[in-house]
Design goal:
By secondary structure, the protein is mainly alpha-helical. The protein has 3 helices and no strands. The radius of gyration is 18 Å and the shape is flat.
Length: 81
């Protein structure tokens, strides 16, 4: 077995554990949230620094501002329905 992708083992174990715990009452909600949050954080931690190294910081500030405004508008639209 190759250890080329050693960093994926804790993720797969965590996802399997959360998947098993998702059937247990209150833990189900926490497991669902964590099951989507953990991979998102890990992927963002890998992609973020690479993008940051290649993109102009001023353009990145504008892009992130637009993303936050879009998410805010979406949240307001769902809240006001």
């Amino acid at each position: 077995m190759s250890l080329e992708y050693w960093y994926l083992f804790p993720v797969s174990i965590a996802v399997a554990t959360l998947a098993m715990a998702s059937g247990i009452g209150v833990l189900g909600e926490a497991a669902n949230v964590a099951m989507f949050t953990v991979p998102g954080v890990l992927i963002g931690g890998q992609i973020g620094p690479r993008v940051q190294a290649r993109v102009n910081p001023d353009k990145m500030k504008v892009l992130v501002s637009w993303i936050f405004m879009g998410v805010g508008a979406f949240m307001l639209s769902t809240l006001l329905r």
